[in-house]
């Protein structure tokens, strides 16, 4: 499964930055919640460095170590911030030593196979009194796609976990938990699908996000009820197609 996730992200290296509107908003919000003045930071699931930009602005002099499973994405981050340390590795099996003031990840842990266990392992690299902060795409994101999938069989939706499933690893620590919903507006359902593909978040565990032939059928006029029209009728309000994202 990890290899498929990695391949989808690898393929998005030239489109991620122009497609990641929601990840940008979430990264900015997560950074605004950070409390400490940190000198050493471990960022997991760095991608092209969208959240790293925020961390660097806030912690101008910190040593930042960036980990990601996708080499092409990490290369993009390195071009923007050559001063950081970059490690291409699985965040669920961290090859790091030492301790950090801040361990953090934005929009990444939802791709982990066993986030509860992996978070417990990560905490071993956190300095006493350090800060641990992350955001995840949570269950309820893309409800619209799930409804369309039920109605038409088109597409599939990655099985996202509820935020509470990540919190068991933090039992016994002092933590704050916030849930947020974002509704993004798209001109058309095709525009939403294009953006989604552009971020590399296409692995759903059920083949791919959608096959080419299914997508052609989705847009095909000869199909009596074009799926995109079903979708738009249900979710257009009234000018734009709205898509719900839930974050914890
Ligand atoms: C949605 S992107 C978020 C990237 C960046 N944090 C941002 O906010 O734009 C998710 C990132 O997690 C990475 N990722 C997924 N599974 C991973 C794993 N097991 N270990 C490390 N990185 C992983 C992907 O390669 C991708 O860069």
Give short descriptive properties of this protein.
248 residues, Rossmann fold, two-stranded antiparallel ribbon, globular, binds S-adenosylmethionine
Integer-rounded radius of gyration: 19 Å
Termini distance?
23 Å
Mean pLDDT: 87
H/E series, N to C? HHHEHEHEEHEHHEHEEHHE
Q: Beta-strand level of the residues, as a percent range?
A: 15-25%
Stretches where pLDDT is under 50 for at least 5 consecutive residues are none
How many DSSP helices? 11
Number of strands: 9
Overall domain count: 1
Q: Identify the strand order in the major beta sheet.
A: 3-2-1-4-5
**CATH architecture classification name:** 3-Layer(aba) Sandwich
Under CATH, the topology can be stated as Rossmann fold
What do we call the CATH homologous superfamily? Vaccinia Virus protein VP39
The proportion of residues forming helix, as a percent range, comes to 25-40%
Morphology: globular
Question: What class would the helix/strand composition place it in?
Answer: alpha/beta
Largest sheet: 5 strands, parallel
Bound heterogens, unique:
S-adenosylmethionine
Supply the CATH class. Alpha Beta
Please provide a written account of the structure.
- This protein has 248 residues and is α/β, with parallel strands linked by helices.
- The protein has a single domain (2-247), classed as Rossmann fold (3-Layer(aba) Sandwich).
- It is 38% helix and 21% strand.
- The chain has helices at 2-10, 16-19, 21-33, 50-58, 71-80, 115-123, 143-152, 164-167, 189-198, 212-218, 227-235, and strands at 40-44, 63-68, 85-88, 100-106, 126-135, 180-186, 203-205, 207-208, 241-247.
- A five-stranded parallel sheet has the order 3-2-1-4-5. It has a two-stranded antiparallel ribbon with strand order 6-9.
- Strand 1, helix 4 (50-58) and strand 2 (63-68) form a beta-alpha-beta unit.
- Helix 3 (21-33) packs parallel to helix 4 and helix 7 packs across helix 11.
- The longest helix has 13 residues, at 21-33.
- It starts with a helix and ends with a strand.
- 36% of the residues are buried.
- The mean pLDDT is 87.
- The structure holds S-adenosylmethionine (SAM).
- S-adenosylmethionine binds next to helix 1, helix 3, helix 4 and strand 2.
């Amino acid at each position: 499964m990890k290899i498929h996730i990695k391949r989808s992200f690898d393929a998005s290296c030239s489109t991620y930055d122009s497609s990641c509107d929601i990840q940008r908003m979430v990264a900015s919000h997560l950074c605004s919640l950070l409390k400490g003045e940190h000198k050493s930071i471990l960022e997991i699931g760095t991608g092209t460095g969208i959240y790293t930009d925020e961390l660097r602005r806030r912690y101008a002099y910190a040593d930042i170590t960036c980990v990601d499973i996708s080499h092409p994405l990490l290369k993009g981050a390195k071009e923007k911030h050559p001063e950081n340390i970059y490690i291409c590795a699985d965040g669920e099996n961290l090859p790091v030593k030492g301790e950090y003031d801040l361990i953090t990840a934005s929009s990444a842990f939802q791709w982990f196979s066993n986030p509860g266990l992996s978070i417990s392992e990560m905490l071993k690299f956190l300095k006493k009194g350090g800060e641990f902060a992350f955001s995840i795409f949570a269950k309820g994101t893309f409800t619209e796609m799930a409804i369309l999938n039920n109605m038409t069989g088109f597409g599939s939706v990655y099985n996202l976990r509820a935020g509470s499933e990540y919190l068991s690893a933090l039992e016994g620590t002092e933590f704050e938990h916030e849930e947020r919903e974002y509704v993004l507006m798209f001109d058309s359902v095709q525009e939403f699908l294009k953006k989604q593909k552009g971020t590399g978040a296409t692995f759903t565990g059920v083949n791919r996000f959608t096959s080419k032939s299914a997508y052609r059928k989705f847009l095909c006029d000869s199909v009596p009820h074009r799926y995109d029209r079903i979708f738009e009728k249900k979710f257009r309000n009234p000018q734009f197609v709205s898509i719900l994202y839930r974050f914890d």
